[in-house]
Amino acid sequence: MPVFDFRNEPQGADISECTYSIFYSSESLPTPEAPILILDNRQKDWKHHSCGVFTNPDKRTAFEFDEEDGTASANILKIDARFVPLLRWLGENRIHVRLSGKNLADGYAVYKIREIAFGKGTKLSAEDGFLQFIIERLLSSDAPEPEEDSAEEEPDETGDDMKLTSLQSITDFMTCAGKTLPDTILLWARRNLAVARSHEVTLEERRHAQRALSIVLNIKWKTNYFESIDPVEARRILDEELYGMERVKQRIIETIIQINRTHTLPAYGLLLVGPAGTGKSQIAYAVARILKLPWTTLDMSSINDPEQLTGSSRIYANAKPGIIMEAFSAARESNLVFIINELDKAASGKGNGNPADVLLTLLDNLGFTDNYIECMIPTVGVYPIATANDKSQISAPLMSRFAVIDIPDYTPEEKKIIFSRYALSKVLKRMGLAEHECTITEEALDALVNKYVTTSGIRDLEQTAEHLAANALYQIEVDHVSEVVFDEKMLGELLA
């Protein structure tokens, strides 16, 4: 393993002494027991918060502490493999940082590195928050493959608001964290970075290359390893969103529980088919909660042309990525739940081609190519959940990519329970009303359900609950009554 040489001086005939060893970790939350690096503390115990710079005195990789009586140097003993390029970059650029660490038997365990301004200088050459952005990306990544030759805490800073937009920040990111990217993404990024820097191409080409780099590199590219789910917790989440329908819940859990053995997403997504208003979208959101993944929605009823999904070529001045790529960008993560609403409308495109054909490449988990990005985007971490009202309108190739689950309509008795126990209670809580301040008699409830007996789903009932609660609040505030009980007559007058 080569030693850091932050002076960039030519190496002589002498062999550099390497003072550190590399360890491989995939911990996402550094602690004194699982640190980023370990410094030699045999000379003295270092302060919990210590400022200084990474350096290389006498060809030994070290950290130079800013002490009250001057500077003191400590060799680096161990480094998390993910952070080797970052520490080299910090040293080469003489970036002043503050370490948070703890003195242990085997050394000073550093578990936090924060950027600080020094003197009248700025924090970093890139953008504010860049260092924290890099560190968070490194911590969320898996350890690289081993090379053959090779007191009170302040509120944590976050790099969530940081975005790679400038060429400087993109270049620094590639230097520090490039190896954590998928191979295809890394190769693509290097090519596009060369285009963005080149003066042999048009300004428009450079602008498109830089924009594409910003989009792709701001996404956290994760592995296809997924943690096991808790069936009990999964059932609880489904019960929150869906009353009754025990067979539906059981089928959903049976489909996604495969993750507990394979630690990969199920081979088939979910296709929820049923009348409008039966809670298909709520089920999709619940599954995303169970999988602990961010989610994004894709409304196929608004897609008229495949290009809306695949993006447009960079040869056009107004070129832009497609909706699918924009969804990745919005989520800022490669592992997510794709909720495809109204899949039965996917084949009704009015432009050149069929939008349904584009979805097939996304659903096969073999990778998706956006015309603007011009790169095969890994989709192994995408779990699709589609909704539809009429599965007869869905093509056979699309159907074969899903585990189809039929969502039946609610019975009148189920609708009564849903309205009284869930819909009305939910609205009252949101409006700040107590349960006794707005109630409905059994006769009025029967009349309400009979009014919407021919209507599928419970959306009308939920809207009625909103209407009743708002009316009750009005009477309480204006007429100064203590409570409102809706009987059949009052309900009829209110809904007339």
- Determine the N-to-C terminus distance: 81 Å
Total beta-strand segments: 16
Largest sheet: 6 strands, antiparallel, barrel
Task: Determine Rg (CA atoms, Å).
Answer: 29 Å
The helix/strand class is alpha/beta
Determine the number of helices (DSSP H or I, runs of at least 4 residues).
17
Low-confidence stretches: 1-16
Give the name of the CATH architecture of the largest domain.
Answer: 3-Layer(aba) Sandwich
Average pLDDT number: 83
Task: Tell me the number of structural domains.
Answer: 4
Helical coverage, percent range:
25-40%
The CATH homologous superfamily of the largest domain is called P-loop containing nucleotide triphosphate hydrolases
CATH class of the largest domain: Alpha Beta
Strand residue percentage: 15-25%
What is the name of the CATH topology of the largest domain? Rossmann fold
- Gross morphology is globular
Q: In order across it, which strands form the biggest sheet?
A: 2-5-4-3-6-7
Walk me through this protein's architecture.
This protein has 17 helices and 16 strands. It folds into 4 domains: 21-133, no CATH class; 181-217, no CATH class; 231-406, Rossmann fold; 412-495, Helicase, Ruva Protein, domain 3 (Orthogonal Bundle), CATH 1.10.8. It is an alpha/beta fold and 496 residues long. 37% of the residues lie in helices and 18% in strands. The strands form 4 sheets. It has a 6-stranded antiparallel barrel with strand order 2-5-4-3-6-7. Strands 9-10-13-8-14 form a 5-stranded parallel sheet, with helices on both faces. The termini are far apart. Mean pLDDT is 83; it is low at 1-16. The longest helix is centred in the last third of the chain and has 20 residues, at 412-431. It has helices at 84-92, 130-140, 167-177, 183-197, 203-217, 231-241, 246-256, 259-262, 280-291, 307-310, 323-331, 355-363, 396-399, 412-431, 442-451, 459-478, 488-495; strands at residues 21-23, 37-39, 49-55, 62-67, 70-80, 97-104, 107-115, 269-273, 295-299, 336-341, 368-370, 375-377, 382-388, 402-406, 438-440, 484-486.
